[in-house]
Amino acid sequence: MSHYGAISHCNKVCYTTPSVTVLRQTQCRSETLVTDSTSGALSSEVADKTGCGALPSPWSIKMAAGQKVTLTLSDYGWGQAAGDVGCRPYAYVVEKSAGVNETICGGQERERQVYTSTSDYVIIQILPRETRQSHFLLWYEGTNGNMGTAIP
Questions:
Q1: pLDDT tens digits, residue range 4-58?
Q2: Where are the alpha helices (DSSP H) in 6-146?
Q3: What are the residues whose beta carbons fall under 8 Å from the beta carbon of 130, sequence distance 6 or more?
Q4: Edge-first strand listing for the sheet containing 33-35
Q5: How far apart (Å, rounded) are the C-alpha atoms in residues 84 and 107?
């Protein structure tokens, strides 16, 4: 699923506004932030400005039983570092039930699917701007695990 091609016909400048998950900064003080929305986007810009989504307040994404969490990275720093090879760490995904602690790497493609969980619960920690040196959106969606379709 591409998040860039949402509008097909335009007369002038066209853009889409994603549903970015935002909380008041006072909600981001040493607690895990929980969203039970079936889809949305986590913004590195919001994490930088508020601390929401970074340590000590990572995002906790919980879907309905039987669903999986699919994560897609929209990388606004893609192509900026010519000759850069390897992983440019942007965030961490933790899936405790599966014993997974995986790094989400940027700089590889403008948009790509980066993770599909084996359970209905993941924790996302966005790394600080100084570490990742770029902005991104991390789209999350509850899926049935087969075709990537949201389950209502």
A1: 333 333 333 333 344 445 444 445 654 455 666 788 889 999 888 888 888 778 8
A2: 44-50, 129-132
A3: none
A4: 33-35, 59-62, 121-126, 88-95, 100-106
A5: 8
CATH of the domain at 85: 2.60.120.290
Q: Is residue 20 part of a domain?
A: no
Please list the residues that pair with 143 across neighbouring strands: 68, 150
Q: Establish if 13 belongs to a structural domain.
A: no
Give the total number of structural domains in the chain.
1
- Structural contact between residues 141 and 39, judged by C-beta atoms closer than 8 angstroms: yes
The rounded distance, in Å, linking the Cα atoms of 58 and 60 is 6
Q: Give pLDDT tens digits for 101-121.
A: 999 998 888 999 999 999 999
Look at residue 21 and give its three-state secondary structure.
coil
Answer whether residue 135 is part of any domain: yes
Which helix H or strand E contains 50, and what residues bound it? helix 44-50
State the Rg of the chain over Cα: 15
Question: Burial code of 30-40, b = ≥16 C-beta within 10 A, e = fewer?
Answer: eeebebeebbb
- Reported pTM: 0.75
CA angle 76, 122, 99 (to 5 degrees): 115
